[in-house]
Amino acid sequence: MAQGPNQTTRISRRSALSALAALPILPAFLRTPAFAQAAETQAADPLPSWNDSAAKQAIIAFVHETTNRSSPRFVPPAERIATFDQDGTLWAEQPIYTQVVYCLDRVPAVVARRPELRTAEPFKTVLSGNREAIAKLSMKELEEILAATLTGMTVDEFSAEAKAWLETARHPRWDRPYTELTYQPMLEVLRYLRANEYKTYIVTGGGQDFVRTYAERVYGIPPEQVVGSAGGTSYGYGPDGRPVLTKEPKLLLNDDNAGKPEGIHLMIGRRPYAAFGNSIGDRQMLEYTRAGEGARLAMLVLHDDAKREYAYGPALGLPDTKVGTFTQALYDEARSKGWTVISMKDDWKEIFPGSVGRALK
Amino acid sequence: MAQGPNQTTRISRRSALSALAALPILPAFLRTPAFAQAAETQAADPLPSWNDSAAKQAIIAFVHETTNRSSPRFVPPAERIATFDQDGTLWAEQPIYTQVVYCLDRVPAVVARRPELRTAEPFKTVLSGNREAIAKLSMKELEEILAATLTGMTVDEFSAEAKAWLETARHPRWDRPYTELTYQPMLEVLRYLRANEYKTYIVTGGGQDFVRTYAERVYGIPPEQVVGSAGGTSYGYGPDGRPVLTKEPKLLLNDDNAGKPEGIHLMIGRRPYAAFGNSIGDRQMLEYTRAGEGARLAMLVLHDDAKREYAYGPALGLPDTKVGTFTQALYDEARSKGWTVISMKDDWKEIFPGSVGRALK
Fold it and tell me: I want to staple B184 with a disulfide (CB 3.0 to 4.6 A). Which of A51, B207, B253, B353 is the partner?
């Protein structure tokens, strides 16, 4: 019988929103893109932040098998697609998804424009600053906040607002910009795959427009290779007669769970050869990837490193924080189907990039 | 006052479907991809099938201006996006859009699977073979046929069916596979832009899944660079338990008119630097492209060559066939906004590629 790393089962639930109010707003420093660092070490060891374990060997074997012309499982460069979940797979997702923090932080600006919301729920609760009350917001109330803060402006206005926020917002635990809390070992995987002519895509349940504002700088992934939950836009003309695209509260793609393979078909039109995730929201993407012919790599990041990052999820016998849920069933499916589970504690030498990683030790 | 090439105005309407029943079904020959031909001529003249007119000069000047590092309007390679309408811009669209022919041809197979449709309209009319009656089908009836023939199967089944059809179907006038009736001068533009690090995209009102089945072979454009009208899919499991994506009758993106810039934002996330079209359905894409900063190229193909291809559209004082409508208003907007109108008759030395073009002379 398949067993998880810890058989203890679910404890009481902890809210995903509980650490929200701890977010200070401080100026950010200019940063060099983490994905561009240490390219010179590639030749010797493409994955220097990985311990020499089965997970690292699986990645290297996959790349050799699919890119060596004499391999029976050779994949032509045009078909080399690799997809990556973002939250919890490429960067930290605890204690709350970064984009949700953004939306909550935007509430005062939205209320300033639409004063009638000041006394209306759930906006009133967010403005109160009452952490406990905010943590108890229902999914429906959270969706109202997302709709109010992510739609109604032009795509250019949204992009400018999100970029400005990312410059100043800090993670409550490390007091660092969110964009510095990417995982160094995964940045190495992105680089390694691209060096072997793989096109790397983000396939995220997060907002496509939000992630596109920093994915190129942070991960080296251009906007056209970011697939995410996406709302419709409407084409029209601004006061000066110039064309504008306005973000509408109409969901076109809910890019999570079954929505991930559906989004991959919509936006890419090819089945990936490699897929990386960390939660039940990634299950269908990994299944879909592995169902293709030839060598297909499916990997799940397990957050089991409370000291250097976080440890969470029912598969570890820890609470389901509702952020990046890794269940026992997912762990069992991974084992039975030959997916590789990455232990952050055991497989990764470093968690965060370069100077950030050193400063946080 | 802006004037069209011909001031005679609208004559009686001709149905887009009238030539439908003339389609013979013959086996196809193996073909070399037209986009791969004549690469060696690029160095000397990147656009050898173009006469040395203003249209050709506009394309060459745009490429020089955006790719020369010392140009004030230099565009970094990552941002070089060019979008192309397909029907009437990259290949022939008369007498009826190729995909509509496909859908009508698929009706017998759909009825064989769903016999209750045999006596139901509009399927009964299509099966009758009565050209006049088929030509009179309403847009709503045509949409019913599209839904029945483009949805309900897995994406892999659809792709196989469409590929098989393209192998055998022939254009009624030239008795050639549709995929050979691409425009040689436009294939040269695609190649020329790609040689200068532009990413070339198709942005079509046609079905995204349909165009993706041949775009790589025919235009050198991979599936992930085809943006088209797109329906939803649903993720599920086949009889063998393997994951499948099934095409659903739910329209996510109507990629025509305002839907083109909306689709570009959804699928690419960057504003194009160059856009090519041939009808009112491309107007908003060209406006959106030109509204960006720096050098932006907007071009419209005018079908004014009845001898070598077709001449049609109100801007020429010819009937609106409802296929690729080029109105006087579009012509006037092009003139007033500095878009370039390409005359197929005057600007193009050749219409179709290599041996096809020679055989058709």
Answer: B353
